[in-house]
Sequence to fold (1239 residues):
Amino acid sequence: MAERSFKKEVEDLRIGAGETFRGEGILAITKALLENGVGYVGGYQGAPISHLMDVLADAQDLLGELGIRFEANASEAAATAMLAASVHYPIRGAVTFKGPVGTNVASDALANLASGGVTGGALIIVGEDYGEGSSIMQERTHPYAQKSQVWLLDPRPNLPSIVDAVGHGFALSEASNTPVMLQVRIRSCHVYGSFQARDNVRPPLTVREALSNPQRKTDRVVLPPASYIHEQEKVSKRLPAALEYIRAHKLNEVFGPETAPVGLAIQGGMYNGVIRALQRLGLADVHGDTEVPIYVMNVAYPIVEEEFLDFCTGKDAVLVIEEGQPDLIEQALRSALHKAGHPVKLHGKGHIPMAGELTGRILLDGIEGFLRDTAPAMLPDPVRAPNEPPAPVPDLSGAVPGRPPGFCTGCPERPIFAALKLVENELGEHQVAGDIGCHLFGSLTPFNIGGSTMGYGLGPASNAAFDGGGERRPISMLGDGGFWHNGLSSSIGNAVFNKSDGLTIIVDNYYSAATGGQDILSSRADNASKATQHPISQAVKGVGVKWVRQIDRTYDVKRMRDTIKEALTTDHEGPKVIVASSECMLNRQRRERPILNQAIKEGRRVEKPKFGVDEEVCTGDHACMRLSGCPSLTLKMPDDPLRDDPVAHIDQSCVGCGNCGEVADAAVLCPSFYEARLVHNPTPVERRLSRLRKSVIGWLQARRAARRLSWEEPA
Amino acid sequence: MNELSAKLRSQDPDARLGQIVKLAVMAVGGQGGGVLTNWITDLAERNGYRVQATSVAGVAQRTGATIYYVEMLPDTGRQPVFALAPAEGDVDILIAAEMMEAGRAIMRGFVTPGRTTLIASTHRNLATVEKIVPGSGIGDAETVKKAAAEVAKEFIAFDMERIALDSGTVISAALFGALAGSGTLPFDADSYRETIRASGRGVEASLRAFEAAREAAERRATDPAPAPSGAAPAPQVRGPAKLMAKWQALEARVAALPDPVQALAAPGLKKVVAFQDVAYGAEYLDRVEAAMRAEEQATTGGDWPFTAQAAKYVANAMAYDDIIRVADHKTQAARMPRIGAEVGATEATLVQVTEYVHPGAAEFVSLMPAGLGRWASARPGVMKAIDRVVNRGRRIRTDGIIGFTMLYLAAGLRPWRRRLLRHRQEMAHLENWLSAATARLRSDPALAAETLRVRRLVKGYSDTHARGLSKFDKVMSGILLVEGREDAADWARRLIDAALQDPEGKALDGALETIRSFATAGRA
Fold:
């Protein structure tokens, strides 16, 4: 069950010819898969392609009707390996994951798949997580496509173009017996737009039917001598077939006048940004009709050299617009020009920065600079000689604080790091390795714990050099998502085999939370199409860890702290593993809130907790903040001229997780925190008891008030 | 070549380019920026526009800064090419769902003079780095507001979060209302309302917030100026006649103080009397008046900076944070109704309140009579034994009779407070500090006032309190090193600021190191 429900979107997947699909890019791709007779779909979730997985997970009925198999693969490697079904069988298959991290994981299967080649269309949809909003290292998927010889589509970022790319991707894959990658950037995945739908198509051969008639061809197995033949085939057969298909179906596009002194050669994904820059320079209209010719490479690999040479003919200069580094496309185009002895002057990186996202400003400056150098007469007068320089941007860096992502309100991972911090206060700082997932936010303020991340599920493995132990034990973090993705073998099994002395804390929040709350093996929810409720602690024991502690409520900071301390000081030899389990609060709220509201409406008894701070008791030292960072635990300036510093304040967004109180207790901070539990529909007994309590307490209060001065705020 | 390109430039730039509306939303993850973007998209389509919206979801949703972007153009049958991200200098409407996000938008160049309408909620959603400073690390929103008013074509700013909370919804509805009220989009209010209705969930609350914010934006409302501190009507005092008479005598003494002192002595008096009793209030005023006399003798008086600081910090020092004070506060009649209002309690609900307290041996012993307390503190074995018994976290239900009575009894120690160890310690500390400050009046009045301000460092409970005291001692000893220098008061202020920068006192140690380097340079 994912963070969002896609019930409405599933209905959109059912529409047919004559109707208009409206929605975001990644859902358009999902619909296009169904229109193109896909036989099976899989992948591994992650921004920006999670919604493709989520919507298909919610669309089991529709997929069943069409005879399509949907698999939530264990990893990107598993997803890519699944495309093996298209090797011998003429079935179209598609998998999705984020790039380049997913491509990294997938590369073993990818290389094997690409070596033998495919019969049915095999499409890999890569959400390129690059530029603003990205959460991963800044690299490109492009070289993976090159090294394994997998064609790379990079369509213009609008829904019709992306949807077309899905259809052509399958067809190109089949025409050239080669897997095809469809690359979509973060914003293309989330762009809202529309396209004309077609009817969904049932696969001509379903995977169930294929099982009745097994196929095998030994020459597709990656074993000598076939593997040598595969390499030759790639060059002699598959590449020419692909080039032929790309040319014949005009996958690459040319816009603008036929003759012009200069032109632009761009990645398809850069098209909208380039047009916007031309619009701002007065060289294109709202529809993108441009005065500067543009060669749009919707196929980023392979390069169709003849097409490009044709485009260059008659031009003095061409600017290559390519995002990221190395400048792989530019190098390929230069090579083509060089081989052909073409006289055109090729510009690229230099006008365009080597590294970083090509934002609006960068494209505007880059294209303007190129035109200034090569065809200044094309630039309108105001651009050529601007009247006044743009006003300087005020520097507010002293006032505006950084706002990196962090743990959500009520996150069950916060108390784990609070406990770790308390242990470090006592035992000193430790070597801590982080992992991929929300828990990596522990490396940021206020916890500042963990200084590395080496890959999904590789946290403990990245501490392996310290497995031998020392004066202080190494600590590593591992999320439940990473654990099932790769961690069980690469990290835990590795630690057992190598007799690691370290401590691993596995954060079990019932979901693959950072990617949007998808279910995994250890999820607690019942899932109609997946097997859940496989405890992590059992798996860990199963591979041979002897020292395992299961904590079922991470908010118990004292227990958390004491268990970590025990793990760091015990005489036990071999790896120590703590499984810290509490449900992801974002998902828990989403799950519980409607149920509780319904219960309140129906008159059933419901308790809603919230924390508060006694303003007069809080002294404004903010020690609690340094062990929290919760968005709902904030500050306010008391209306009291005697106070200098803002005091703690808990706002309306508090979900009553208890971390504040637990931390105040475990760290012996202060008595300012209280939990107020609002009881809806209390029982009659409770009501009577409450009346009794109020009268006794009221009597005591009145008794004392009668003997002293007290103040009453005027109404 | 140039001739050819000149020929190519046959027509002027497309006039419709100026009609593309470019709108960006800067929000904090979890504020409903996605909902707002969907509404704007729907609104544009409803009014016959072609529209494109993009967002950067993913990890940025987890409380980080997030940006959404919308472009729209009247539909003429052919698809325009829209950009997928906002560009510097090319945004028409910028909606900031929080004040500092407006600042971030300005820094990123998304607010262009003469072009961009900036719609911002003035409320603050504090970032973690602002919250963890032991003093005050809150960013300067006024600087951002000033810059916004200068650079934006129009700056529509008020507390939209408040409107949303008052309407029982989230800020996206109020932002949508402010967008409508700004009049920057050529759509009538009804189509906004239709959009909200069509979205289906929490419609009534959303509409309430929408209307309130639309109306406020339409008349270009601004936040009411914050009431100056102390301007609120004074709380009404009540009590037995005998005590009231004594109180009035104390009030008369306050009224006789000069204005700048009164402003602090009045709340100071209330604080110490509420802490202990009227006699304690008289002691407080004795100290304030003594400070005034000393200042009068030492200087020409003026605005009474020393006495005013004394009125403030002596009150804080006298009303120290002990268990009795905490228990007294938590058992007062006004507290439960306040908590009830905070959680939205009604006649039909009950509120259960659990206190999280964790007293240690030191706190327990500080509640003993001074002699016994001193005896115990001097014996580690005894302290250890006491610690074993008392030192654990306690959850006390103060809505229940037993829990309430426990705290009620602790608060009932108030009449005996003067005889307890803690009181003796606090008073000794106070006298030392106050006399050190007063002694400096003659030689360096500014340093004397700064010496009083050092008291700001003493706060918190348990370890935090101990750390505060140690910082207090360090700053006091640092002041000794600079005493006599012309810039001694500046150094004292710098030491106090440094002490408030980080919990461990690293900045303070650094500042002290600097002082030692020049203070001892001549003596080596």
